[in-house]
Amino acid sequence: MAVTLSSGISIKEQIALLVELQETDMTTLSLREQKSQLPETPAAVKRLIEQAQKAVTEATQLQKETQATWKNLESDLESQEASIQKSKGRLSELKTNKEYQAHLFEIDLAGKKRGQVEEQLLLIMDRAETVDQQVLNAKEEMVRQEAALEAALIKAEVTEADIDRELEVLSRSHERLARQLDEKLLAEYEQVRSSYSDRPMVPIHGGTCSGCQLQVPPQLVAEVKRGEALHVCSHCQRFLFWPSETTDAKV
Length: 251
Hints:
The protein is mostly helical. About 75% of the residues lie in helices and about 5% in strands. The chain has a 5-stranded mixed beta sheet with strand order 1-4-5-2-3, with helices on both faces.
């Protein structure tokens, strides 16, 4: 099927304009897609910040628990030491050897308990040092992620501004090209474009429609090559054209 145009209109010029319009529209579509994906980067960084904040909270809580255990062990150690000293002070008050030996046993038992507390205290001191480093590392990671988010937001804002400027230029180009096209042809182009978001204008390569990849009848190939009318692929209803060096580089 061939698309008829108003008299006096060069079909070859119209085809060239349509190819240029298509490239403008395709670039516009691509930029809009890029713009729609911009918020995804900051969102990903925000999730990393949330993870870093959670790590800080957990490490800080562990630090508090460790410090509380340390304090309790120190208190236990002081109590054990005070109990031992008190027991030693009573030795001189004991009257029988049996009482004396029993008291020595209690002092020895208290000393062993003190030793156990001292060992636990040494362990918790080492643990506290490790936990303190965990807190420091978690806070540093949170600062890094916050800086990364700020950088991502700035980059997204700059990129969005650049895209908006390009879209404005493309919009003006679309309007300029549309004014030069036959109204009926432009309407049909827009109708096909609404059905095929990729490319309504497709070249013939090797006797095949590059839109649907199906074979084009030889007679139609010859007519498209002559460029005396704008033809439509009978399979996919896209516009067909014979690529020149310029248009071939664009499609």
